[in-house]
């Protein structure tokens, strides 16, 4: 994802020429500067805290997680997980077998998550981009709207989701009051947090919470579109709509490449929203993978199977990210050439 | 709110006047979107000012009477003050540590050429894609083990949570700060080095002040991340270290929910972050522009 960009262009536009001319000679060779030893050691010393923390909190647990996925790990072995018996690929075959209950549940949860992610990311991107484009030009109230639109992003997830949970209550919520009592659209007030409707409830909350991030990033991206492009477009007789289609949207390509990927990963892994909206056990129609793994690990205390599902999830995300970056980067190179 | 200074952000698009169809689409779209965004905010604010009978029956748009009772009651119904202090300590400490660590790392990447630089940025950023659920349990077991082996209580303590949260915001913070430090002219700290400053003094006396907006943006981001996290807080805290994320959720899933109090509590815990965010959002946008979107 992002590292591709940050590492290939590690300098701000102004610094690029200087860095380029220096780069080939000094990439490996010594620098003609005083204090050579300190200089070569210093960057590593500066990186050490960040590295140590990442290793301790991310890398080690992930290695442990992968090991655990090959073990028969239940509550009896939690005290000393290293002593738990090996199970080979047993956990994986169990959760991947669509004929068995565990496998079937995982497959359904996975498909639900895919559908949910595509819908949520699409809507978030659409709303964010439209809002950013409409707020590009100055008009009265623009600053106010911009601040307002960022409120869902700034609110703590649980505070926002709890409010939505209240609105979706069957008997005392706002949604049923409007749909049933005021508009009379439904025969009896539906349940939103149980059954099939829960998918839509989750989607609404997720989009409400997620679109401001897209808005923020696109807005930042729009500031880098050179003004000359618009002037040239206007000279050629392009109106506002045409300028948006021919200048604004294509200029957003590099931003979108990163944005869509980040939105995808966050939404696919989202745990907080369904967990706060539904509690520990989500209804089937809104059983996202993270909640599913959490629930099946802690309900059955079968942590080996939970770890196996997590590893599968990680493999899937790596695969999608790899393919996505390959396709979009190739597309971009072709477009640039 | 005053309209923004015309010179800076006016009409980056058409120097020609926008057509009516554009103006009307904009008006309609922005009105609908504002309604969507404001609806829960209105529910939260209005319900928090209602007496109990208004929220335990069909929904009412307007309160039958305005009352501040829920704001007084929340501190008694649940130990909200304790959760609040826990969240404040955890999020505050995680933010400070995360920013300091991120500044060091970003400075190294931005100013020095060294082996493994690319590997570092790629691997740090790729931790962003790991599902939290994958390392929740191993981390939990690891903290328990470290506790048994060394007596350092990480599991159930604020320390463990601080350690965890600080690494959550770290990748994105480093990434944003690299971009931000890159936009601070090298000549500034090179001049300081020539004047006899050590690299660390140059960092703190010259680079950090010049990159202050970016650092502020990163701090806001780190604080929000820690303040809003639910998954790890639900597993790694106990009764004395419970944070708002878990406490509030328990509050809203009781059998008999006092929705007016829950809404008041939600509002109270949101105010610090929303106020901070809105005050500093300009920096966050600048920080994103410099760092993320290049």
Topology overview:
The complex is a heterodimer of chains A (337) and B (294).
Chain A: H1 3-8, H2 16-26, H3 36-68, H4 90-96, H5 101-134, H6 142-149, H7 151-154, H8 157-167, H9 174-182, H10 197-222, H11 227-235, H12 240-251, H13 253-268, H14 272-278, H15 289-300, H16 303-336
Chain B: H1 6-9, H2 20-48, H3 52-55, H4 69-77, H5 80-111, H6 117-126, H7 132-150, H8 158-182, H9 186-194, H10 199-210, H11 212-228, H12 231-236, H13 244-252, H14 259-291
Helix pairs in contact in B: 2-14, 4-14, 5-8, 5-11, 5-13, 6-8, 8-11, 8-14, 9-10, 11-14, 13-14
What are the salient characteristics of this protein?
heterodimer, A: mainly alpha, MetI-like fold, 0% strand, disordered N terminus, B: 14 helices
Q: Indicate the radius of gyration of chain B in whole angstroms.
A: 24 Å
- Oligomeric assembly: heterodimer
**The CATH C-level class name of one domain in chain A:** Mainly Alpha
Distance between the termini of chain B: 30 Å
Do you know the CATH topology of one domain in chain A?
MetI-like fold
**Proportion of residues in extended strands of chain A:** under 5%
Helix content of chain B: over 70%
Number of strands of chain A: 0
Number of helices of chain B: 14
Q: How many individual helices of chain A?
A: 16
Largest sheet of chain B: none
CA-based shape of chain A = globular
Name the CATH architecture of one domain in chain A. Answer: Orthogonal Bundle
User: How far apart, in Å, are the first and last alpha carbons of chain A?
Assistant: 21 Å
- CATH H-level superfamily of chain B: MetI-like
Kindly report the name of the CATH homologous superfamily of one domain in chain A: MetI-like
Average pLDDT over all residues of chain A = 82
Largest sheet properties of chain A:
none
Q: What fraction, in percent, of the residue positions of chain A are helical?
A: over 70%
Annotation, overall tally of beta strands of chain B: 0
How much of the sequence lies in strands of chain B comes to under 5%
């Amino acid at each position: 994802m992002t590292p591709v960009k940050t590492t290939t262009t590690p300098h701000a536009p102004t610094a690029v020429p200087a860095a380029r001319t220096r780069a080939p000679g000094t990439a490996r060779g010594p620098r003609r500067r005083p204090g050579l030893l300190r200089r070569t050691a210093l960057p590593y010393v500066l990186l050490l805290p960040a590295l140590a923390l990442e290793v301790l909190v991310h890398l080690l647990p992930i290695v442990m997680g992968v090991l655990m996925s090959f073990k028969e790990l239940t509550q009896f072995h939690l005290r000393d997980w290293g002593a738990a018996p090996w199970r080979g690929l047993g956990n994986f075959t169990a959760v991947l077998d669509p004929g068995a209950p565990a496998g079937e549940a995982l497959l359904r949860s996975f498909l639900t998550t895919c559908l949910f992610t595509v819908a949520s990311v699409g809507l978030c991107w659409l709303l964010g981009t439209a809002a950013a484009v409409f707020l590009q030009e100055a008009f009265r109230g623009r600053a106010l709207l911009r601040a307002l639109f960022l409120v869902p992003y700034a609110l703590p997830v649980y505070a926002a989701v709890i409010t939505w949970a209240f609105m979706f209550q069957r008997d005392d919520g706002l949604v049923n009051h409007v749909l049933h009592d005021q508009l009379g659209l439904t025969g009896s007030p539906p349940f939103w947090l149980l059954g099939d409707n829960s998918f839509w409830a989750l989607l609404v909350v997720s989009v409400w919470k997620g679109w401001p991030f897209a808005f923020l990033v696109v807005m930042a991206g729009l500031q880098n579109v050179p003004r000359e492009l618009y002037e040239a477009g206007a000279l050629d007789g392009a109106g506002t709509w045409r300028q948006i289609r021919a200048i604004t949207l294509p200029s957003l390509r590099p931003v979108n490449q990163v944005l869509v990927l980040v939105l995808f990963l966050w939404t696919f892994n989202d745990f907080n929203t369904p967990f706060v909206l539904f509690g520990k056990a989500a209804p089937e129609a809104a059983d996202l993978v993270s909640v599913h793994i959490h629930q099946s690990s802690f309900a059955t205390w079968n942590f080996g199977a939970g770890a196996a599902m997590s590893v599968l999830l990680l493999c899937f995300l790596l695969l999608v990210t790899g393919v996505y970056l390959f396709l979009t980067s190739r597309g971009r190179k072709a477009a640039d050439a | 709110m005053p309209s923004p200074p015309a010179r800076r952000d006016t009409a980056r698009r058409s120097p020609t006047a926008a057509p009516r169809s554009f103006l009307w689409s904009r008006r309609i779209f922005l009105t609908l979107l504002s309604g969507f965004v404001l609806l829960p905010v209105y529910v939260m604010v209005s319900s928090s000012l209602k007496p109990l009978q208004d929220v335990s029956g069909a929904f009412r748009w307007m309160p039958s009477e305005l009352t501040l009772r829920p704001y007084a009651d929340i501190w008694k119904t649940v130990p909200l003050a304790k959760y609040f202090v826990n969240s404040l300590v955890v999020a505050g400490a995680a933010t400070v540590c995360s920013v300091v660590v991120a500044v060091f790392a970003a400075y190294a990447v931005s100013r020095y050429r060294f082996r493994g630089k690319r590997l570092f940025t790629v691997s740090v950023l790729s931790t962003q894609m790991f599902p939290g659920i994958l390392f929740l349990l191993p981390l939990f077991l690891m903290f328990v083990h470290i506790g048994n082996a060394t007596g350092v209580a990480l599991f159930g303590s604020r320390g463990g949570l601080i350690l965890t949260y600080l690494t959550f915001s770290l990748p994105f913070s480093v990434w944003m700060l690299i971009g931000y430090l890159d936009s601070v002219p090298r000549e500034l700290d090179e001049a300081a080095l020539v004047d006899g400053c050590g690299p660390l003094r140059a960092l703190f006396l010259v680079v950090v002040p010049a990159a202050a907006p970016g650092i502020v943006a990163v701090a806001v981001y780190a604080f929000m991340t820690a303040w809003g996290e639910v998954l790890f807080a639900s597993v790694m805290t106990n009764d004395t270290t419970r944070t708002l994320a878990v406490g509030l959720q328990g509050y809203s899933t009781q059998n008999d929910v006092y929705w007016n109090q829950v809404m008041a509590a939600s509002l109270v815990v949101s105010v610090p972050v929303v106020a901070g965010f809105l005050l500093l959002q300009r920096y966050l946008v600048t920080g994103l522009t410099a760092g993320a979107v290049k």
